Amino acid sequence: MESVVLIIHVLLAVAIIALVLLQQGKGAEAGAAFGGGASQTVFGSQGSKSFLGRLTAVVAAGIFATSFALAVFAKQKAENVTGAGIPSAEVIESAAQPVDENELPALETQQAGDKAASDIPVAE
Question: How far, CA to CA in Å, does 52 sit from each of 16, 39, 71, 123?
Answer without folding.
Answer: 10, 17, 28, 77
